[in-house]
Amino acid sequence: MHSLPDLDTPARRQQLVSQFMDRLANDELLSSVFGNSMNADGSAAPVEQQAWWDSALAGECYQGRPLRATHVHPYTGPLYERWCQLLKNTFDRNFEGPEATAAQGHVLNLATMLSHWRLAQQDSYSTPDTDATKQLAAA
Asked: Is the sign of the CA dihedral 121, 54, 45, 5 positive or negative?
């Protein structure tokens, strides 16, 4: 049986983020939120976004935001559920081991925290008027 690698290096964390961002950009529900997340050079995330993910996956302190400012916040209703499902599937298909398990827990905990924050801030959080925004409002 083929064993999957653990998520134990910055390069592997970058690989996970790249795979996850690609899945988000190509997902029927979330592509309207994330669109094409790739940079012009083909990398999956801007340096500051990759740094956030690397810190969050490693369980370290992090600064900034996991999403570009232009993204509609996906952490509510069906968008949140799909985001979590894609993240879990990306982990399960590509990584296994204690660090992968811990990293998945760190990021899903952060997503839950962001979801609660989003619900508490609904009145003060402004988003562009897009189809994705309408989906969030209906959720």
From this structure: negative
